[in-house]
Design brief:
This protein is an alpha/beta fold. It is built from 20 helices and 15 strands. The longest helix is centred in the N-terminal third of the chain and has 30 residues, at 2-31.
Amino acid sequence: MKNTNMRNLAIWGVVLAMILLVMSATQSGMNNPANSDEIIYSQLVEKAQANQVETASIDRQGGKITGTMTDGSEYLVTVDPYQDNLADIFEGTNTAVSAKPLEQQSVLGSILMATLPLLIIAGLFILFFRNMQGGGRGGAMSFGKSRAKLLTENTQRKTFDDVAGVESAKEDLKEVVEFLKDPSRFTRLGARIPTGALLVGPPGTGKTLLARAVAGEAGVPFFTISGSDFVEMFVGVGASRVREMFADARKQAPCIIFIDEIDAVGRHRGVGTSGGHEEREQTLNQLLVEMDGFEGDEGIIIIAATNRPDVLDKALLRPGRFDRQIEVPYPDIQGREKILEVHMKGKPIAADLDVKYIARGTPGFSGADLMNLVNEAALLSARRNKLKITMREFEDARDKVMMGAERRTLAMSDEEKAMTAYHEAGHAIVGLNMKGSLPIHKATIIPRGRALGMVQYMPERDQISQSRQEMIARMAMAMGGRAAEEIHFGYDKVTSGASSDIEQVTRIATAMVTEWGLSDEIGPIAYKDTDQQSFHPGIGRGSAISPETAKLIESEIKRFVTEAHETAIKILKKKKKDWVALAEALLEYETLSGDEIKELIENGTKPKRPDNSGGGKPAVAAVPTTRKPKPKPIGGASTARDVNPDA
């Protein structure tokens, strides 16, 4: 940065000198009278002898004679400044003469004035030439230089204390830190530290932060670069940047090189024939060669990050290169609690805030999601002119992140509000009466995003897997909204608002039949589509599935969905009194907490709210599984009535 500033100052200095030179060269012309007539010396002599010259000003320094004629006109005569007796032509005349003597100029000054333009031009030429050759990172011909940024120990230093929720990954990386601090501890026993460590995990889980924490713990320089920075349209540029990066790293050893999104340059070779692929493959080949050239005591460790390890070239993952893969998964409930505590540091948090409860209600959140949640809660507190962040702000921030901001200005007719209330009440009543269903957190008919209303469920713990009973309960609960519309408003009045519920039920039923072996007719056999990687009814069946088997699979999927729908109808008819009471309460209060719903169903007691707003104890709700589709439906659940499912 310092060299860049000095170079900029030099450029501006040269430009200023040129401006001054131009001003000096044109100053004499600027001082000439605007309306003066230029005449030759002999004409001036004739007019002087004829007493036609009224005034004369002799300027030897400028090499000119100026003045006025008797008729009022002005004149200009260019003369030799070293000519003698310039004033003699005015002797015996009525001309008023004034003279400015010639100042003696030093020889050095004369030489400088003569050579200054050439020096300025030569300096500019050298400066531009150096920039083109890569004197700066942004030069016109610097595309072959490494674009890795060097972060030293004093540049935003991070440690393992700044990383939470990925304890297993930190344990694996502590060995790397110990090697960077004391390599002889390992080399004297003949041990070889892995050359590269590959951090694998979903976006936002903290892979880049982990790499920086390793450098911070070891106190070594940290080079960071993205995989896309290697590849350009010119063949050979990427390989040149790889060589340059490793050359810089060897000068700073021991150090860490971190390559983010390495899949941009490390994909399988031999795919495609265009120039872009050839450039990428040359870059990958150079990277493999550089990693093979490491010596045991060189002190350079490569850490790379990707969320797509399946597309990486096998040569990149073999022993001796990226031979250690470290999983960085979504944090569990304890990890989320620690991450929240890290992001809450330095913020005014209310005393009644329960971090464990927030962590419990955010399954599937990454570290970046939790950071965004805390920030949204702080923004809401500021808008409401509060001095501290309370549980209510975290509740509203969670809903905003998940479903969008409230749309209380949305124009809904009384019929649409009633449809939404009975729809959501149907979800809640079926969920309350199914074994294996999650506890209800809250129900609301306030529109958010595309949803006109929703019922949220709070998991007791992070669910790694689900039982058959839980899946059946979840499908029946999801079909409760559609069943409610059919019973209360009639078959012809059913709306498209249950589209997301039907999609969720179909996805669960398909997985139960084709992946999890929970169909008695199909048995414990996994059926995968060769293109889609999973079975989709009526869509591109793979050659391994016969038409008869595909028909049987579709029949079983339909059976699961139909049984869930019939179960929901049976429960709503049996619990019609509770269902209607809950729907009417939603129309009156708009939002009901899980405790208020339980009190209403068991004792018939309505919420006591002076302002008829809000919804019970403020808390953080569960995360809908539809938010991040996973191979298995884990964590909390939510059902929502769509505004326009076809949008």
